[in-house]
Protein backbone atom coordinates (compact mmCIF):
# COMPACT_ATOMS: atom_id res chain seq x y z
CA UNK A 1 0.00 0.00 0.00
CA UNK A 2 1.01 3.63 -0.45
CA UNK A 3 1.31 5.47 2.84
CA UNK A 4 1.08 9.24 3.17
CA UNK A 5 3.14 10.63 6.04
CA UNK A 6 4.61 13.80 7.52
CA UNK A 7 8.19 13.97 8.78
CA UNK A 8 8.47 16.10 11.94
CA UNK A 9 10.78 16.68 14.88
CA UNK A 10 10.69 18.08 18.38
CA UNK A 11 14.13 19.37 19.44
CA UNK A 12 15.73 16.91 17.03
CA UNK A 13 13.75 13.88 18.25
CA UNK A 14 12.33 12.92 14.84
CA UNK A 15 9.06 11.29 13.86
CA UNK A 16 7.06 9.90 11.00
CA UNK A 17 3.50 11.09 11.70
CA UNK A 18 0.61 9.22 10.08
CA UNK A 19 -3.02 10.22 9.72
CA UNK A 20 -4.93 7.00 10.47
CA UNK A 21 -8.25 8.84 10.32
CA UNK A 22 -8.20 9.22 6.53
CA UNK A 23 -6.21 6.06 5.72
CA UNK A 24 -6.33 2.55 7.16
CA UNK A 25 -3.24 1.45 9.08
CA UNK A 26 -2.65 -2.11 10.26
CA UNK A 27 1.09 -2.73 10.13
CA UNK A 28 3.20 -5.54 11.55
CA UNK A 29 6.16 -4.83 13.82
CA UNK A 30 8.46 -5.57 10.88
CA UNK A 31 6.67 -2.98 8.72
CA UNK A 32 6.99 -0.35 11.45
CA UNK A 33 10.67 -1.22 11.75
CA UNK A 34 11.08 -0.87 7.97
CA UNK A 35 9.37 2.53 8.01
CA UNK A 36 11.70 3.74 10.77
CA UNK A 37 14.85 2.48 9.04
CA UNK A 38 17.04 5.42 8.03
CA UNK A 39 18.49 3.58 5.01
CA UNK A 40 15.61 1.51 3.66
CA UNK A 41 12.59 3.45 4.94
CA UNK A 42 11.82 7.05 5.88
CA UNK A 43 13.82 6.99 9.10
CA UNK A 44 12.73 8.19 12.54
CA UNK A 45 13.14 7.64 16.26
CA UNK A 46 9.41 6.96 16.55
CA UNK A 47 6.34 6.60 14.33
CA UNK A 48 3.26 8.47 15.60
CA UNK A 49 -0.25 7.40 14.60
CA UNK A 50 -3.18 9.82 14.78
CA UNK A 51 -6.56 8.15 15.37
CA UNK A 52 -9.98 9.27 16.53
CA UNK A 53 -10.64 8.27 20.12
CA UNK A 54 -13.75 6.25 20.95
CA UNK A 55 -13.80 7.79 24.45
CA UNK A 56 -16.26 10.58 25.21
CA UNK A 57 -14.62 13.95 25.81
CA UNK A 58 -11.32 12.86 24.24
CA UNK A 59 -10.30 14.36 20.90
CA UNK A 60 -7.76 11.87 19.56
CA UNK A 61 -5.95 8.62 20.20
CA UNK A 62 -2.15 8.70 19.97
CA UNK A 63 -0.17 5.53 19.26
CA UNK A 64 3.63 5.36 19.29
CA UNK A 65 5.96 2.84 17.67
CA UNK A 66 9.70 2.84 18.28
CA UNK A 67 12.24 2.34 15.53
CA UNK A 68 12.54 -1.32 16.57
CA UNK A 69 8.86 -1.84 15.69
CA UNK A 70 7.57 -2.09 19.25
CA UNK A 71 4.60 -0.09 20.49
CA UNK A 72 5.29 2.04 23.58
CA UNK A 73 3.27 3.94 26.14
CA UNK A 74 4.35 7.56 25.83
CA UNK A 75 6.52 10.08 23.96
CA UNK A 76 6.62 13.67 25.18
CA UNK A 77 8.33 15.28 22.18
CA UNK A 78 5.98 13.31 19.96
CA UNK A 79 2.99 14.76 21.80
CA UNK A 80 4.06 18.23 20.71
CA UNK A 81 4.47 17.07 17.10
CA UNK A 82 1.04 15.45 17.39
CA UNK A 83 -0.59 18.79 18.31
CA UNK A 84 1.09 20.66 15.46
CA UNK A 85 0.09 17.92 13.02
CA UNK A 86 -3.62 17.84 13.89
CA UNK A 87 -3.72 21.66 13.91
CA UNK A 88 -1.92 22.10 10.58
CA UNK A 89 -4.04 19.38 8.95
CA UNK A 90 -7.27 21.01 10.09
CA UNK A 91 -8.26 17.99 12.17
CA UNK A 92 -9.05 20.30 15.08
CA UNK A 93 -9.61 24.00 15.65
CA UNK A 94 -8.93 23.74 19.38
CA UNK A 95 -5.76 25.17 20.91
CA UNK A 96 -5.96 22.66 23.78
CA UNK A 97 -6.89 19.04 23.17
CA UNK A 98 -7.32 15.83 25.14
CA UNK A 99 -5.38 12.89 23.76
CA UNK A 100 -5.62 9.21 24.71
CA UNK A 101 -2.31 7.31 24.97
CA UNK A 102 -1.51 3.79 26.08
CA UNK A 103 -0.58 5.18 29.51
CA UNK A 104 -3.53 7.55 29.94
CA UNK A 105 -4.86 10.97 28.92
CA UNK A 106 -2.53 13.88 28.16
CA UNK A 107 -3.61 17.48 27.57
CA UNK A 108 -1.34 19.43 25.20
CA UNK A 109 -1.99 23.01 24.13
CA UNK A 110 -0.65 25.30 21.41
CA UNK A 111 0.88 28.49 22.84
CA UNK A 112 0.75 31.94 21.22
CA UNK A 113 4.48 31.79 20.42
CA UNK A 114 4.05 28.54 18.46
CA UNK A 115 5.59 26.35 21.13
CA UNK A 116 3.51 23.57 22.65
CA UNK A 117 2.94 22.81 26.31
CA UNK A 118 1.98 19.29 27.35
CA UNK A 119 0.47 18.33 30.68
CA UNK A 120 2.34 15.05 31.13
CA UNK A 121 0.51 14.08 34.32
CA UNK A 122 2.00 13.32 37.71
CA UNK A 123 5.18 11.22 37.87
CA UNK A 124 4.98 7.65 39.11
CA UNK A 125 7.62 7.04 41.78
CA UNK A 126 6.72 3.67 43.28
CA UNK A 127 9.37 1.23 41.99
CA UNK A 128 6.98 -1.65 41.29
CA UNK A 129 4.74 0.65 39.23
CA UNK A 130 7.59 1.98 37.06
CA UNK A 131 8.24 -1.06 36.87
CA UNK A 132 11.56 -1.65 38.69
CA UNK A 133 12.47 -4.75 40.69
CA UNK A 134 13.92 -3.41 43.94
CA UNK A 135 14.00 -6.77 45.73
CA UNK A 136 17.00 -7.24 48.04
CA UNK A 137 18.52 -3.87 47.12
CA UNK A 138 19.76 -1.42 49.75
CA UNK A 139 18.63 2.05 48.75
CA UNK A 140 19.83 5.41 50.02
CA UNK A 141 17.99 8.69 50.46
CA UNK A 142 18.99 12.01 48.94
CA UNK A 143 16.62 14.85 49.71
CA UNK A 144 13.14 13.48 49.11
CA UNK A 145 14.33 10.94 46.56
CA UNK A 146 15.22 7.27 46.96
CA UNK A 147 18.27 6.19 44.98
CA UNK A 148 18.79 2.60 43.92
CA UNK A 149 22.09 0.84 43.15
CA UNK A 150 22.43 -0.74 39.73
CA UNK A 151 25.30 -3.03 38.80
CA UNK A 152 26.67 -2.22 35.33
CA UNK A 153 29.73 -4.12 34.08
CA UNK A 154 31.13 -4.58 37.56
CA UNK A 155 30.51 -0.99 38.69
CA UNK A 156 27.70 0.46 40.74
CA UNK A 157 25.65 3.47 39.61
CA UNK A 158 22.95 5.16 41.66
CA UNK A 159 19.71 5.87 39.85
CA UNK A 160 16.35 7.49 40.40
CA UNK A 161 13.49 5.46 38.96
CA UNK A 162 10.59 7.46 37.54
CA UNK A 163 7.74 6.71 35.20
CA UNK A 164 6.21 9.43 33.03
CA UNK A 165 3.92 6.84 31.49
CA UNK A 166 7.09 5.03 30.43
CA UNK A 167 10.02 3.91 32.60
CA UNK A 168 13.16 5.99 33.22
CA UNK A 169 16.40 5.44 35.11
CA UNK A 170 18.09 8.79 35.80
CA UNK A 171 21.63 9.23 37.02
CA UNK A 172 23.58 12.41 37.75
CA UNK A 173 26.92 12.74 35.94
CA UNK A 174 29.66 15.35 36.16
CA UNK A 175 29.89 15.82 32.39
CA UNK A 176 27.10 14.60 30.12
CA UNK A 177 29.35 14.78 27.05
CA UNK A 178 31.91 12.48 28.65
CA UNK A 179 29.30 10.10 30.11
CA UNK A 180 29.35 6.52 28.70
CA UNK A 181 25.87 6.86 27.19
CA UNK A 182 26.47 4.55 24.24
CA UNK A 183 28.17 1.91 26.43
CA UNK A 184 26.11 1.94 29.62
CA UNK A 185 22.86 3.04 27.95
CA UNK A 186 22.00 -0.30 26.30
CA UNK A 187 23.09 -2.20 29.42
CA UNK A 188 20.74 -0.15 31.57
CA UNK A 189 17.95 -0.41 28.97
CA UNK A 190 18.09 -4.22 29.10
CA UNK A 191 18.97 -4.59 32.81
CA UNK A 192 16.95 -7.44 34.37
CA UNK A 193 15.77 -5.11 37.14
CA UNK A 194 13.54 -3.44 34.51
CA UNK A 195 11.09 -6.07 33.23
CA UNK A 196 9.77 -3.75 30.49
CA UNK A 197 13.21 -2.31 29.72
CA UNK A 198 13.94 1.33 30.49
CA UNK A 199 15.06 4.70 29.13
CA UNK A 200 18.48 5.61 30.55
CA UNK A 201 19.03 9.29 31.38
CA UNK A 202 22.40 10.96 32.05
CA UNK A 203 21.87 14.38 33.71
CA UNK A 204 24.46 17.09 34.31
CA UNK A 205 23.33 19.85 36.67
CA UNK A 206 24.60 23.29 35.56
CA UNK A 207 22.63 25.33 38.11
CA UNK A 208 19.34 25.03 39.96
CA UNK A 209 17.33 25.94 36.85
CA UNK A 210 19.47 24.45 34.08
CA UNK A 211 20.62 20.94 33.17
CA UNK A 212 22.19 19.14 30.25
CA UNK A 213 20.68 15.77 29.41
CA UNK A 214 21.40 12.78 27.19
CA UNK A 215 18.99 9.84 26.99
CA UNK A 216 19.46 6.35 25.60
CA UNK A 217 15.88 5.54 24.68
CA UNK A 218 14.29 2.14 24.94
CA UNK A 219 13.96 0.70 21.44
CA UNK A 220 15.52 3.72 19.71
CA UNK A 221 19.05 4.22 21.08
CA UNK A 222 20.38 7.67 21.92
CA UNK A 223 18.13 10.39 20.52
CA UNK A 224 18.76 14.12 20.14
CA UNK A 225 16.05 14.81 22.74
CA UNK A 226 13.59 12.86 24.89
CA UNK A 227 10.58 14.70 26.28
CA UNK A 228 9.58 12.17 28.93
CA UNK A 229 13.27 11.77 29.77
CA UNK A 230 13.52 15.53 30.38
CA UNK A 231 10.47 15.35 32.64
CA UNK A 232 11.87 12.38 34.56
CA UNK A 233 15.27 14.04 34.98
CA UNK A 234 13.76 17.26 36.35
CA UNK A 235 11.50 15.32 38.74
CA UNK A 236 14.54 13.38 39.99
CA UNK A 237 16.63 16.54 40.32
CA UNK A 238 13.94 18.43 42.26
CA UNK A 239 13.34 15.47 44.57
CA UNK A 240 17.09 15.14 45.18
CA UNK A 241 17.26 18.82 46.17
CA UNK A 242 19.45 19.74 43.19
CA UNK A 243 16.92 21.73 41.12
CA UNK A 244 14.09 24.26 41.46
CA UNK A 245 11.19 24.62 39.05
CA UNK A 246 11.14 25.64 36.23
CA UNK A 247 14.16 23.98 34.63
CA UNK A 248 15.73 24.55 31.22
CA UNK A 249 16.76 21.19 29.78
CA UNK A 250 19.52 21.42 27.20
CA UNK A 251 19.73 18.48 24.79
CA UNK A 252 21.73 17.86 21.62
CA UNK A 253 18.64 18.75 19.60
CA UNK A 254 17.46 21.87 21.41
CA UNK A 255 15.97 23.15 24.63
CA UNK A 256 12.87 22.17 26.61
CA UNK A 257 11.30 23.88 29.60
CA UNK A 258 10.02 21.64 32.39
CA UNK A 259 7.97 22.77 35.38
CA UNK A 260 6.83 20.65 38.33
CA UNK A 261 5.38 21.82 41.66
CA UNK A 262 6.07 18.47 43.33
CA UNK A 263 3.96 15.69 44.79
CA UNK A 264 0.99 14.64 42.65
CA UNK A 265 1.08 17.83 40.61
CA UNK A 266 1.44 17.33 36.83
CA UNK A 267 4.73 17.83 35.03
CA UNK A 268 4.43 20.56 32.38
CA UNK A 269 6.69 20.36 29.33
CA UNK A 270 7.06 23.21 26.82
CA UNK A 271 9.04 23.07 23.60
CA UNK A 272 9.01 23.31 19.81
CA UNK A 273 7.54 21.10 17.10
CA UNK A 274 8.63 21.41 13.46
CA UNK A 275 7.34 19.97 10.19
CA UNK A 276 10.21 18.89 7.95
CA UNK A 277 8.46 17.50 4.85
CA UNK A 278 5.47 15.58 3.51
CA UNK A 279 5.86 12.32 1.63
CA UNK A 280 4.48 9.05 0.38
CA UNK A 281 6.08 5.60 0.56
CA UNK A 282 5.15 2.16 -0.68
CA UNK A 283 4.80 -0.23 2.27
CA UNK A 284 5.28 -3.84 1.26
CA UNK A 285 4.75 -7.02 3.27
CA UNK A 286 8.04 -7.44 5.17
CA UNK A 287 7.19 -10.08 7.76
CA UNK A 288 5.40 -10.21 11.11
From TrEMBL:
Substrate binds at residues 13, 46, 66, 76-77, 166, 199, 217-218, 227-228. Keywords: Amino-acid biosynthesis, Cytoplasm, Isomerase, Lysine biosynthesis. The active site is at residues 75, 226. The record marks 168, 217 as: Could be important to modulate the pK values of the two catalytic cysteine residues. It catalyses: (2S,6S)-2,6-diaminopimelate = meso-2,6-diaminopimelate. The keyword Signal does not apply. It comes from the Bacteria. Its EC number is 5.1.1.7. It is found in: Cytoplasm. InterPro entries: DAP_epimerase_AS, DAP_epimerase_DapF. Pathway: Amino-acid biosynthesis; L-lysine biosynthesis via DAP pathway; DL-2,6-diaminopimelate from LL-2,6-diaminopimelate: step 1/1. It holds the Pfam family DAP_epimerase. It is an enzyme of class 5 (isomerase). Transmembrane segments: none annotated. Belongs to the diaminopimelate epimerase family. NCBIfam families: DapF. Homodimer. Catalyzes the stereoinversion of LL-2,6-diaminopimelate (L,L-DAP) to meso-diaminopimelate (meso-DAP), a precursor of L-lysine and an essential component of the bacterial peptidoglycan. HAMAP family: DAP_epimerase. This is Diaminopimelate epimerase. It comes from Collimonas pratensis. The lineage of its organism: Bacteria, Pseudomonadati, Pseudomonadota, Betaproteobacteria, Burkholderiales. The gene is dapF.
